[in-house]
Amino acid sequence: MIEPYYQEEKAPLPARRPVHVVLDNVRSAFNVGSIFRTADAAGVECVHLCGITCWPPHAKLEKTSLGAHQYVGWKRHESTEEALLWLRAQGIPIVALETRPEAQVMGQFCWPQPVAIVLGHEVVGVSAEVLALCDVCLQIPMFGVKNSLNVASAFAVVIYDVVGCNQSLSPG
Predict the structure, then answer these.
(1) Would residue 172 count as lying in a domain?
(2) For residue 28, what are the CA distances in angstroms to 54, 149, 150?
(3) pTM of the entire predicted model
(4) Total domain count for the chain?
C-alpha cells in the first residue's frame, strides 16, 4: 500500500495551543474527521474521543481529516465523565458548547488557557450529566430560525474565537 503524501515528508510539528476538545458521543465519523482537521489548523493540543465517538483508525474519519488525525494528539475515553475528571485533575477549566437559556454568549466570554471545550451529540447535544461537570456553558449567538450549527461547524466558529481571544498564542 502506498502511504499518503502527507506522511512522506513530515515537517516538524508546530507548537500546540493549550486547548483540549472533548467529543461527547459525537456519532458521525465525518464530523469527527472534520473536527480533527480544524483542530490541526488551529493548533489544538488534544482531542478526547468519548463514548460512541469513533477513533483512528477509521475510514470515514480519515476521509474528512485528510491526515490531520496524525498530527493532533488524541485520547480515547469510555465515557465523557471519565475524560472530564481526567482534565479536572490536570487543573483545566471545562467549557460546554450548548444551546441553553442560561448559557453565556460567545463573544462576551474571555477564554481561559488552558481550556477544555465539550461538544455534544449532533441531535441531543451535551448530556445533562456532562453539563453538571462543566464550569461554564457557552452558546454561539444564532440569528436564524434554527438554534444550532452542525457540530463540526460550531467547533470551527468556537476555536477561532479562542484563537482570537488569546493573541499571544498566534502562530509565528
Answers:
(1) no
(2) 8, 14, 11
(3) 0.89
(4) 1
Residue 74 forms part of a structural domain? yes
- From 57, 65, 23, select the one nearest 40 (Cα to Cα): 65
The more confidently predicted of residues 22 and 10 is 22
Residue 171 lies in a domain: no
Q: Inform me whether the pLDDT recorded for 8 exceeds 90.
A: no
Q: The domain that contains 50 carries what CATH number?
A: 3.40.1280.10
Q: What per-residue confidence (pLDDT) applies to 13? A: 73
Domain that holds residue 133: 5-166
Contact in structure between 34 and 58 (CB atoms under 8 Å):
no
The residue type of 134 is: C
pLDDT band at 2 (very low <50, low <70, confident <90, very high): very low
Amino acid at 169: L
